[in-house]
Specification:
8 helices, mainly alpha, Rossmann fold, elongated, 176 residues
C-alpha cells in the first residue's frame, strides 16, 4: 500500500481512516520519498511521517505516526467493510430477546455500529400521509439503553478505556 497507492489514495485513506489532519503532506512526502527508494521498514515510514508534520504538532498528543498506522491497518484488514456485515450476521443469529453487545474503540467503528443498530431498529418508512403501511418494514430490534462510556473510575484504573463505547441491541420477538 505504502509503495503502490497513488498520492490521492493515500491522502484519502489517511484522512478517512486515521482522521489525520496532515494527510496531504504525509501522502505527498511518502510519494516523493518512494520515487527515490522503496519504503521497506516501519522505522523509515515513521521518519517520513515525522518530516511531513510541523514540529509543533509532533510535540503534542502522542506518537506522530499513530493515526497513519491506524489508517494503514484499517485499509489492509478491510476492517470497516467487514464490521457492518459482521454486526448484521451476529444479529441474525440471535434468538428472540437475545442481546448483542459491541464495544468500539474508534469513532469510525462506533458510527458503523450505531447506524447498523439504527437500521435494525427502524420500522415503517412510509410517508406520514399514507393511511396504512405499504412498505411492510417492521423493527427487528430495540436499543435497551443508550451507548455507554466508561466511568471516570474505569478511566482512572484503565486509561485505554477512554475511547471505548458500549452499544447493545436486543432482538425483538416476532409475533404472527
Amino acid at each position: 500500500m505504502v509503495n503502490g497507492y497513488s498520492e490521492a489514495e493515500l491522502k484519502r485513506i489517511l484522512y478517512d481512516y486515521g482522521e489525520e489532519r496532515y494527510s496531504p503532506s504525509i501522502a505527498a512526502k511518502i510519494v516523493k520519498t518512494r520515487e527515490l527508494k522503496q519504503i521497506q521498514t516501519t522505522f523509515e515510514l515513521v521518519e517520513i511521517i515525522k518530516a511531513a508534520i510541523p514540529a509543533a504538532a509532533r510535540r503534542e498528543g502522542g506518537h506522530p505516526a499513530r493515526r497513519t498506522f491506524q489508517a494503514i491497518r484499517i485499509e489492509v484488514n478491510g476492517e470497516l467493510e467487514n464490521l457492518q456485515n459482521a454486526v448484521e450476521t451476529m444479529f441474525s443469529l440471535l434468538s428472540p430477546s437475545g442481546r448483542l453487545a459491541i464495544i468500539t474503540f474508534h469513532s469510525l467503528e462506533d458510527r458503523i455500529v450505531k447506524k447498523t443498530f439504527a437500521s435494525l431498529c427502524s420500522g415503517c418508512t412510509c410517508p406520514p400521509e399514507f393511511p396504512i403501511c405499504v412498505c411492510g418494514k417492521i423493527p427487528q430490534g430495540r436499543l435497551p439503553f443508550k451507548a455507554q462510556k466508561p466511568s471516570s473510575d474505569e478511566m482512572e484504573h484503565n486509561p485505554r478505556s477512554k475511547s471505548a463505547r458500549l452499544r447493545v441491541i436486543e432482538k425483538i420477538e416476532r409475533r404472527a
